[in-house]
UniProtKB/TrEMBL annotation, chain A:
Top-rank taxon, per record: Bacteria
Listed name of the protein: Ferritin-like domain-containing protein
Annotated organism of origin: Micromonospora avicenniae
Automatic annotation (TrEMBL), chain B:
Protein name: DUF4439 domain-containing protein
Superkingdom as given in the UniProt entry: Bacteria
Segments forming domain DUF4439: 13-148
InterPro entries tied to this protein: DUF4439, Ferritin-like, Ferritin-like_SF
Amino acid sequence: MVLTCAVVRGTNAQRIDASRHSRRSLLRTGGLLALGAAAAPLTACDPLGREEAGPRPPDPLRPLLDESLALAAAYRDAATAHADLAALLGPIAEAHQAHAAELARVLGVGLPSAGVTPSSTAATDPDAAIADLRQRERVGRDGALTACAAAPAARAALVGSIAAARATHLEALK
Amino acid sequence: MSQHSAPPTPAEALAAALSAEYAAIFAYGPIGVRLSGSARTAARQAEAAHRRRRDALVVQLSTAGATVPPDQAGYTLPFPITDRASALRLAIEVEERTAAHWRAALAATSGSDRDQALDALVDYAVQATRWRRTAKITPLTVPFPGRPT
């Protein structure tokens, strides 16, 4: 940023010098004007990536998408490990996967193919597995509630439905 | 889907939610008659939640100087309530429909109004899941509560 400023200011200063108006006050004023002028080229510089134009902040829906995929995988794992829970957990896994698909559509990104998590993380005890899912679901619900409160109008209904769905999953696991 | 009408204002969205609350309270009348024991108690509690939101909305809209839609003398039920099973099915539908109205209010609102709409959407979605459990209807959940199907 400093480098760019110096170049721009130098150019303006040279032009002022070239006009040969040697009164210091005028020069000082010219210098201030040049500083002001430097602000505009600066912003034009950022898209070139030469300055501190770091990576753009991630879309706020992205964490929600990642969480939906992780939840879907966790439910699938638990349903595989505990066949008698499959009827309860299967539809919830599908719901999380549907959320991920819808979020990916809104974000304009592709979904990673499902089932790329071969290591089962499900607890061997069914009660512990449910408790673990409930904890994950609680965190996910709270995150979606926060995201909905801050979401732009066009996204509020989708994020609200996802928050509500996660709350119903908690209820279903009672 | 080719609607190009202007999005509702916050007051219009809340007024629509209020109309849904009126209808929900009406529906819980015949629902409660067909239930007994803990299911009837649950119906009273669910109805009380709709009454609380109705009362709050009436005050809120009046205070804001917005139009308060009137309650109707009666509402057409989507199917006849003849027994416990149909009463529970209607209870599920009532919760889903009111949830849908509050969901629609999310886009039209911000700040505390949106919090209010979100709270109602979540509350009614969870209540619909409770009714499905009571009715032994599976799955207990839907993927996108409140979303028009």
